[in-house]
Amino acid sequence: MPIKIALINAGSIILKLFKVQNQLENSEKKRSMESKFSFLINLLVLQCLAVVCVSQDFDFFYFVQQWPGSYCDSAKSSCCYPTTGKPAVDFGIHGLWPNYNDGSYPQNCDSGNPFDESKISDLIGNMRKNWPTLACPSGSGETFWSHEWEKHGTCSESVFDQHNYFETTLGLKQQTKLLQALKTAGINPDGSTYSLENIKDAIKEGTGHTPWIECNRDSSGNSQLYQVYLCLDNSGSILIECPVFPRGGKCGPEIEFPSF
Length: 260
Ligand code: 5GP
Ligand code: 5GP
Known about the structure:
2 domains; Ribonuclease Rh, Chain A; five-stranded antiparallel sheet; alpha+beta; two-stranded antiparallel ribbon; single chain
């Protein structure tokens, strides 16, 4: 990781400078050298601080889940079931996205670390069930997972390797149990219309955190529940309140929850 390498390099240079400085302890040139060394050391310390301050990786993650019924009946996109069959009637994972507090985000951070399915072979069954692809043409999921790792996952390499990235995201799906939270509040994917506030309250009650709801439109133009955003701290360990919500995808006060 670049920050760590920069700090280690700077640290070892500082140590070397101190050693050389000790060796010169008894020399006549000590005085003038001392001032040069202290100038160099100050410069290096300032550089270290600049690296730490300026190149912060990211501030938090969005954990995004999609309602398959709304992906599939949307006016914009067609949908194709995965080659492994129709997914369960449940929210599916879209991704885990590093983000900055100002709403911008890094992407495609490391072309040298492409998606490698062999690194997550133990997770494939779980991935197919909980992170199914609905894009056309039908696929088994690799294209979607590869896109998510390469666009977003590679920007979280300071926290996750590929296995951790997917394992953590799968764990968040189990932890948040969105459909259960909604059903408990009497909100079911039956094509009815529900108040956006009730949907948010139900998810807050179930997960402990305020979600951002993104809507899309069905072919008749009705606003419907499409994606749910929750936030994770930048060490990838706990859900937090979102520092900022995404732009766009706004819902009306009443939205449809289509069946799947
Ligand atoms: P859309 O334009 O459909 O909202 O988003 C397209 C894609 O851009 C998303 O699937 C995601 O990869 C990326 N994206 C959109 N908004 C955000 C955001 O707020 N944070 C991050 N990290 N990625 C985003
Ligand atoms: P984003 O950049 O929006 O995170 O990534 C979405 C990309 O993944 C698009 O290229 C989309 O075609 C592909 N994709 C594959 N399967 C799915 C799916 O089930 N849902 C969404 N939203 N995108 C998918």
